[in-house]
Amino acid sequence: MSRYLLFFLLIVGLFSNSVLAERIKDITTVAGIRGNQLVGYGLVVGLDGSGDTSASFTDDSMRNMLEQLGITLPPGANLPIKNVAAVSLSAELPPFTKPGQKIDVNISSIGNSKNLRGGTLLMAPLKGADGQIYAVAQGNLVVLGLNVGADDGSSVTVNIPTGGRIPNGATVEREVLTSFVAGDSITLNLHRPDFTTAHRLAETINDTMGLGTAHAVDASSVRVSAPKELSQKVSYLSMLENLTFLPGTAAAKIVVNAKTGTVVIGQNVIVQPAAVSHGNLAVTITNDPLISQPPAFSSGETVVVPKSNIDVQVNNKGAFVFNLGVTLDEVVRAVNNIGASPAELVAILEALKAAGSLNAELIII
After folding, report:
1. Can you tell me whether residue 131 is helix, strand or coil?
2. Of 195, 224, 245, at which residue does a domain stop?
3. Are the C-beta atoms of 252 and 359 separated by less than 8 Å?
């Protein structure tokens, strides 16, 4: 009978560990593999009179574009720029994106255009921080905002009509090389730096791949030896990122949002011995005016005589004691039993922190 009980406990323990364990790919990123920000400038045409009306740079841009297309305008000629808007372009170039692939583009008006709905972006280059062109954008805008006005000056605006998006609106022209291609090692960066997690991550890789394969550089990085050949490195990383292990628990923290009254108490929050008494004093003053009338056939006047009622109530919500080693569950249960509001809970936590009875970091945002 004891043999079956031991087997059952072993199965339960393995199941519990598998539930708490996390994959390496979920809590780390590979150094050198990241997206790159692109920015550009362009013109949106085809607007129904909602374009720029007094932006000189829009007029200059139109003249330059027409000259590049072989159209020469006489000096001083007026251009109907009310159907044209100058816009800024922004996009993110994902890692390993190859020339010819498509990426999304965000469009924002930089002039006095009121609405970009129905516009078309003309061919515009997207540049990186090094000034090189990495993509070219063009296409019809998708604008979720709406701005409608009437002749009497009234108008209705829904969302932001001066910004839009072009799904798959840019074609990649150049690839960004990453450090992942070169070298004989891979560096894994933790999303949340922690010495315990970094140590356990290195131990897990060493137990699977061999002793000395990985070592923790600091609280956020673990360097892992890897094959030099790119095809082998890809399969090697695929095997690494699917390994599971138990990360270290986060430091004890209590986060309080003073605006919304939200209080989040993290794991490992322990209260040292302390006694808490919480209550408030409520004073209510009400006025009940009385009408005073003189006797009949007298020369008196009817007057209003004020009468004030003062009610004083002491709402004592009780006292409770935190003994040594009180856990998170006991703290929440004790505070709920006295019916404290979120604002009152914040006051209690701040008082415990000031008294030195709270081991957690109190963060108020």
Report:
1. coil
2. 245
3. yes
